[in-house]
Specification:
With 382 residues, the protein is α/β, with parallel strands linked by helices. It has two domains: 144 residues, 3-Layer(aba) Sandwich (Rossmann fold); 146 residues, no CATH class. The protein contains 15 helices and eleven strands. Helix 5 links the parallel strand 5 and strand 6.
Length: 382
């Protein structure tokens, strides 16, 4: 039976990797729908190759341009409402959330309420509203399958075990492009330096987050919500080789780890094919050439963003949404050369200190906190 997949964010690195996986697994999988923010050139190519008849372009002007370039048989939606309509389509079996940032929250809720299985590569939506999303997934009997290599590793290492059997989780991090750079040189760091990740090819925002270690902080919150664990049970471990993607230590002292080469197509494929493990042509680890693996404790003084994420994890409520929103705006300002690298965590911290946390928030509270934090962050940028 063919599984129909919708890919939100098909022009980004995760979206394109998902299409690569589907190419290798056809005819068991079919691309039923695609969405992009504005890249209609790439979207048009994907429509032609995969015969897609349902797409969404968030940017309204580019959606109009695309209508003049493709067959009238292609249904083109636009904007946030278009995304919510797309994920509800009856032909779709599973939705790959490869869009970055908080824009994923609303369509994710719509997809869950429509009963669609979720392959989740977006961490920001879970960070913002994790408890609410997990309750919804349980209510609608939806499989929420993590795609982030670290979360996928935890999921695979846990297996059928209960989280009550877990002593701790080790969430691994490569350390990012600035791992060996002295703190006194951070002021001179350029955008080009930050985007030169040693292990992964990713989008710009997530690569900056890897350099500040905020990405690992967001994954800390994500793991708490996905696996129903307290912050005290999650330890972050710098592992520059990026071969162990995370580990679970059980109460009896046994540690289960998931190892693979650093290639996002591996966790993407498992999220699409679960519970099967289908063959592929991707490289495995050559253990004979592997002489050493290194592990380090993260330095919160050099990377204060990680400490801010721990603060949000201990506070919960609307604080994770504020952390995420302030960080998104600060990173975007850095990429647009409005602030320097060291200013990113300073702005996030100031916004968090000014926030009045709401402990048991509604969705409306979360959206309000997100908007407030963005406005506050941009005020500080200017």
């Amino acid at each position: 039976m063919v599984k129909n997949i919708a890919i939100l964010g098909s022009s980004g690195s995760i979206g394109q990797s998902t299409l690569e996986v589907i190419r290798s697994l056809r005819p068991e999988f079919k691309v039923a729908a695609l969405s992009v923010s504005s890249d209609i050139v790439k979207l048009k190519q994907q429509i032609g190759e995969f015969g897609v008849r349902l797409v969404c372009v968030r940017d309204e002007k580019n959606a109009h341009r695309l209508r003049a370039q493709v067959s009238s048989s292609v249904k083109i939606l636009c904007g946030d409402d278009g995304l919510k309509e797309l994920v509800k389509d009856k032909q779709i079996d599973q939705v790959m959330f490869a869009v970055s940032g908080s824009a994923a929250l609303s369509p994710l809720i719509s997809a869950i309420e429509a009963g669609k299985d979720i392959a989740l590569a977006n961490k920001e939506a879970i960070v913002m509203a994790g408890p609410m999303i997990m309750r919804l997934a349980k209510k609608h009997k939806v499989n929420l399958l993590p795609v982030d290599s670290e979360q996928s590793a935890i999921w695979q290492s846990l297996g059928a075990q209960n989280t009550e059997d877990v002593r701790r989780i080790y969430l691994t991090a490569s350390g990012g492009p600035l791992r060996n750079l002295p703190r006194n040189k951070f002021k001179q760091v350029t955008i080009e330096d930050v985007l030169r990740h040693p292990r992964w090819k990713m989008g710009q925002k997530i690569t900056v987050d890897s350099a500040t270690l905020m990405n690992k902080g967001l994954e800390l919150l994500e793991a708490m919500f996905l696996f129903n664990l307290g912050v005290n049970k999650i330890k972050i471990l710098i592992h520059p080789e990026a071969l162990i993607h995370s580990m679970v230590e059980f109460n009896d002292g046994v540690v289960m780890a998931q190892l693979s080469v650093p290639d996002m197509r591996i966790p993407i494929q498992y999220a699409l094919t679960y519970p099967k493990r289908l063959k592929n042509s991707l490289a495995g680890i050559d253990f004979y050439s592997l002489s050493k693996m290194h592990f380090e404790k993260p330095d919160l003084k050099r990377f204060p963003s990680l400490g801010l994420a721990y603060w949000a994890a201990e506070s919960l409520g609307t604080m994770p949404a504020v952390l995420n929103a302030a960080n998104e705006e600060s990173v975007n300002s850095f990429l647009n050369r409005k602030i320097n690298f060291l200013t990113i965590p300073k702005i996030v911290e100031k916004v968090m200190r000014r926030h009045e946390n709401k402990v048991n928030p509604s969705l409306r509270d979360i959206i309000f906190a997100d908007a407030w934090a963005r406005e506050e962050a941009m005020r500080l940028v200017h």
